[in-house]
Amino acid sequence: MAFGRRKKTTAEPVGSAGSAEETASAAPGTENGAAGSADSGPEHGPFDAADRPSEEGYVDLGALRIAATQGLALRLEVEEKTKRVVAVTLDLDGSSLQLQAFAAPRSETLWDEIRAQIVKSVSSQGGTADELEGRLGTELLARVPAQAQDGSKGYRVARFVGVDGPRWFLRGVFGGPAAMNPDAAAPLEDVFRNVVVVRGDAPLPPRDLLQLTLPRDASPLPKRNEDSAGDASKPEPPQRGPEITTIG
CA 36 to CA 132: how far, in whole Å? Predict the structure, then answer.
């Protein structure tokens, strides 16, 4: 599967809603029925590398490790000016999940402040952002006015989630059916819960992007153990397309 092309000239700030417009599909606004809450930690992810140190079963993207999931495809987004990878978008069953990881203060959290920034950004575009308690904790469901493919007026809908970890912050943006439909979102929510964030020990200013890298080779990663080959119950590794071209 080939990587999709995206227009991007600068890295999105951690609180920006701009990526919501790129990731979400134009659709009429609907209510999100998700319920419940979740936190990061040893019992439910996303995980810190200290809690999940092994790379087995994961695609290594530097600051992020993505668990092997059948049917999952990866798209890496490159900033034209710096040539660095600034985000990874995961596609599964017609929905998408964009992930970005940031440095965070040791003794402070970022998600409350970032939600307020997203609400302000969405409002400035004439949209709305509703705060909800969802399956992944406190979320934002954002709707920005847009023209649908048939020319009618509709909305670009995106669902923002965030997790404050030890010295890192992980932001996810669900697009497509997963932004609005809890059943459609469930498979990508499982992917999100299994993400491992590799903060590293280097001192970084709060909100700096953690460095993402291309997988080490072009073959699907990680490889399954030989004893699991042919077992349909074992998830296939995420598919990887050809090397990305510069986005611009």
Answer: 10
